[in-house]
Amino acid sequence: MIQNERLFQLNNLPVKKGPVVYWMSRDQRVENNEALIYALDMARQSQQTLVVVFCVDTSYPGANIRHFSFMLLGLIEVETLLNEKHIPLVVLKGNPPQKIVDFVREMNAGHLVCDFDPLRIKQKWLYHVAKSLRIAVTEVDAHNVVPCRLASAKVEYGAYTLRPKINRLLPSFLQEYEVIEPLPKHQRIQITGESLEKLLYDPDIDHSVAEIKDVKAGTIAAYFVLQDFIEHKLDFYSTKRNDPNEDFQSGLSPYLHFGQISAAEVAIDVIRSGKNAASVAAFLEELIVRKELSDNFCLYNSDYDNIKGFPVWAQENFRKHRSDKREYLYSLKEFETANTHDELWNAAQRQMVKTAKMHGYMRMYWAKKILEWTASPEEAMRAAICLNDKYMLDGRDPNGYAGIAWSIGGVHDRAWTSRPVFGKVRYMNYNGCKRKFDVAKYIARN
Ligand SMILES: Cc1cc2nc3c(=O)[nH]c(=O)nc-3n(C[C@H](O)[C@H](O)[C@H](O)COP(=O)(O)OP(=O)(O)OC[C@H]3O[C@@H](n4cnc5c(N)ncnc54)[C@H](O)[C@@H]3O)c2cc1C
């Protein structure tokens, strides 16, 4: 059984007689997926069939083959694991809200269960589906350790205001769920969907960005990454994670983004590891407080990707500094092709384009320099989001929008001493990086 606090009714309609449909979207895993567990419980209680449906939107903003291949390969594993449990997965292709409404109607379903997602586009999909159907539509927050809507009902100022709320609730949500037992027999359904293997070659997917072959997708791969992190890196997380020449971050962000691994499961394994206490605490701060602060920001601030979402002090700040002289100005193309005067920045950009990731410390420098070298904070936000979403495997995530808004617009941060262009937004520079790590080594490697 999962806690009722994870559930949110998207309409006030009753559950009717008919199959239970779980629309998997943000949480693409079988184990430790509270939405799937809930849907299965509902199906068992009412002795109905359970069907999982996934809708692939090949025109999803910012997504290309780099993201689709990681997602589809993960879903192939999901399909196999669901099959072992005699739960059918139907894959659809097209505009998700319409496709899901049609599918639910065709199935004569009595209850639709869906994932929680704070992004504007997903919220729109969910509300469209909930409004169009005449059955109960239940959202389950299987992504956050502490359900986002429960942790806070308003946009938080920063980690310092969300942290105590999360910590108070954490003990009751840090729990492992039982392994899902197979359903008694294979359930037959009439609707055949798309083939995941074929979708990998779908010409409607943007193929202009190179796929990343050396990051293996799926839950099993995520478990290997997690175990490697715990065994070899976690002890040094608090002291070495901020050195871009070292590899002491977990590398879990793509798996967390696609929901291929549960954040709660990661947290439990890390807590049980018995590794260095300061490192465990530092990691949980990022994995839970910072990550869940990003969901809070996107859910309650619909301007999470533009300057209207900045705190008032930062908006006033930019009004004053709008016409400050910029020493360098670059176009999106110049940024994209790593063609700036700053070799450190270029190396970070190259790392992102080549490997689909960028070290966490460099992400801050990278975004802040885009603010410094564009004509306005609006343009800086557009360029940073465009590049982050296009090239990062973990892009198009609340963490990305919050991280960029933190770097460029002071979101979740405080005001610092005023300076040109940045105003009171925290500044970073090349010399600061030189004091922190071996800049030449980073440039040579990337
Ligand atoms: C400009 C900018 C852009 C960013 N874009 C993204 C993005 O597109 N997608 C993304 O997932 N993260 C983004 N981040 C946050 C952070 O840099 C990455 O989550 C982290 O570097 C991913 O590597 P990891 O999984 O090895 O992290 P670890 O250090 O091992 O952390 C574990 C997990 O904690 C969470 N986490 C870590 N740091 C943060 C943070 N600062 N804010 C929120 N959650 C955090 C992530 O889920 C991460 O996977 C961005 C940060 C900035 C400053």
Describe the fold and architecture.
With 446 residues, the protein is α/β, with parallel strands linked by helices. Among the domains are: 4-143, Rossmann fold; 307-445, DNA Cyclobutane Dipyrimidine Photolyase, subunit A, domain 3 (Orthogonal Bundle), CATH 1.10.579. The chain is 49% helix and 7% strand. The chain has helices spanning 34-46, 65-84, 96-107, 120-132, 148-151, 159-173, 196-199, 219-232, 237-240, 253-257, 263-272, 277-300, 312-321, 332-336, 343-355, 360-372, 377-391, 398-409, 430-436, 439-445; strands at residues 7-9, 20-23, 50-56, 89-93, 111-115, 136-140. It has a 6-stranded mixed sheet, sandwiched between helices. Helix 3 runs parallel beside helix 4, helix 11 (263-272) runs antiparallel to helix 12 and helix 17 runs antiparallel to helix 18 (398-409). The radius of gyration is 22 Å and the shape is globular. The mean pLDDT is 96. The structure holds flavin-adenine dinucleotide. Residues 241, 249-253, 256-257, 286-287, 290-291, 294, 360, 363-364, 367, 388, 392, 394-395, 397, 399-400, 403-404, 407 line the site of flavin-adenine dinucleotide.
